[in-house]
Design brief:
Ubiquitin-like (UB roll); Rossmann fold; 3-stranded mixed sheet; 5 helices; 30% helix; elongated
């Protein structure tokens, strides 16, 4: 029967020796870190790494070089290594018409920036001013003189509801174009009631509900209003779609209620 080979454990260093070795390693690591930080600091201060160029990748229609230089460059502090990219992005996004910016370093002395501009689809507010709504339903402000699209519709509603009102406009507008007119203004009141204005000045009361519910009422209205109005040969002055199974219209000089429409309103 074979005997097991003896196992010898390595001697354990005394506690004070182990503490001394650990302290030495920690001090060496700290010293190396300080040297590295000092070296990087010295390297970062060299003129070769000063920012010399900002390159814009994307094509922009409103943010020209003069505007970017005036609004952004004073806010860019530091060099290639020390520049705060988060603050740099915020500086670009503070420029009128800029919705989003992506900022990247380009060794050794440049920034490369990709800009996404707002695409204005409507004015926002009680009256057409410098506030606009972009294609994402976000409200943004620009200089009054920069607004060139005067044919944009006017949307209005409670604070934070621009996206909802834009959704309503996109659902209702194409339907009303079947009447050879256009929806020039759409409003959502604080009580949740929808009201629209047509190109000729006619006002349409649509009542309360979701954009889909309002769309259904407008579709019913569009399907029959031409026949009703043609009987009198008059232009539409106003319409009330808040009836359960019909609508009421007012023509220039004539008032009528669609047959079968109960008095209850929404």
């Amino acid at each position: 029967m074979k005997r097991a080979a003896p196992v010898f454990a390595p001697p354990v260093a005394p506690l004070d020796v182990r503490l001394m070795n650990g302290t030495t390693v920690a001090l060496f690591a700290a010293f190396a870190g300080m040297l590295l930080a000092a070296g990087l600091g010295w390297l970062g201060r060299q003129p070769v790494f000063s920012l010399k160029a900002v390159r814009i990748d994307s094509e922009v229609a409103h943010s020209n070089a003069v505007t970017l230089r005036a609004n952004v460059l004073p806010k860019l502090t530091g060099n290639f290594f020390t520049l705060d990219l988060v603050r740099a992005r915020a500086a670009f996004e503070s420029v009128p018409w800029v919705r989003q910016a992506v900022v990247r370093r380009e060794f050794p002395d440049s920034l490369r920036v990709t800009l996404q501009e707002h695409q204005a689809v409507a004015f926002w507010g009680p009256e057409a001013d410098a506030r606009l709504v972009n294609s994402f339903g976000e409200v943004f402000e620009v200089n009054q003189g920069d607004v060139e699209a005067e044919d944009l519709p006017l949307l209005n509603g409670p604070t934070g509801q621009a996206a909802l009102v834009l959704t309503g406009y996109r659902l209702i507008g194409p339907l009303l174009e079947q009447l050879d007119t256009s929806l020039t203004r759409l409003e959502l009141t604080g009580r949740g009631s929808w009201r629209g204005w047509l190109e000729g000045g006619a006002v349409i009361e649509m009542g309360q509900g979701s954009p889909a519910e309002i769309q259904a009422r407008v579709r019913r209205f569009v399907a029959t209003v031409t026949q009703t109005a043609s009987k009198f040969g008059r232009d539409l002055e106003s319409a009330d779609l808040r009836y359960g199974n019909g609508y009421a219209i007012k023509l220039r000089g004539v008032t009528t209620v669609e047959a079968g429409a109960p008095r209850g309103r929404k």
